[in-house]
Amino acid sequence: MTIDTLLGVAVGIGLAAACGFRVFVPLLVMGGAARLGWYEPSAGFAWMATTPALLAFAVATALEVAAAHVPFLDHALDVVAAPLAVAAGALTMAGALGEASPLLRWSFALIAGGGTAGLFHGLNGLLRAGSTVTTAGLGNPLFASLETAGAFTLAAIAVLVPVVGLLLTVAMVTVIWRLVRRMRAGGRAGVRTA
């Protein structure tokens, strides 16, 4: 593997992780960065920087963010977004791999991109469920704002500083996993004492 391919993998994993928070934010960031000349997507993915694509990503992002801030609608969105997040994670990974062979590109896209997006979406869903239980859904709009900020931040870092984005992704998985384990342990302790 070349250094460009390795950097592409780092970009793709960071973008895919951001897809686990918000499906369309990483696509918007990737397309916007390409339009500004800050990032060059793989051959065949230049369409992401076109005006129609950027408008579509912007509208989809606005709708997704708005729906995520409405209690109870946020959970319906979470269910619908699960397969979309995996698909968007695969798409962002494929678009980040530069001149990689088609076999390598799509293998990484499906396994690493889709898998990373699915992992982040699942862990994030568990945290959202914990927020719903502990705040009766009233804390979910704040949680949604944190998800959106996390998606924009992680996507931007992944495109602009790929290695830092990859390290941030690993750190976020560790933190989220520990929070989920802590919530589960607290739930089991509450059941035992009841």
Commentary on this structure:
This protein is mostly helical and 194 residues long. It has one domain (3-184). The chain is 82% helix and 0% strand. The chain has helices at 3-21, 25-35, 51-68, 73-96, 102-135, 140-160, 162-193.
Any chance you could write out the topology, listing elements then pairs?
Elements: H1 3-21, H2 25-35, H3 51-68, H4 73-96, H5 102-135, H6 140-160, H7 162-193
Task: Give descriptors for this structure.
7 helices, 194 residues, globular, single chain, mainly alpha
User: What Rg do the Cα atoms give?
Assistant: 17 Å
Helical proportion, percent range: over 70%
pLDDT averaged over residues: 89
Q: Compute the number of helices.
A: 7
Helix and strand composition category = mainly alpha
What is the count of distinct domains?
1
Query: Could you name the ranges where pLDDT drops below 50 across 5 or more consecutive residues?
Result: none
Count every beta strand, where a strand is a DSSP E run of 2 or more residues.
Answer: 0
Shape: globular
Q: Could you describe the largest sheet, including whether it forms a barrel?
A: none
Question: What is the N-to-C succession of helices and strands?
Answer: HHHHHHH
Strand content: under 5%
Span from first to last CA? 56 Å
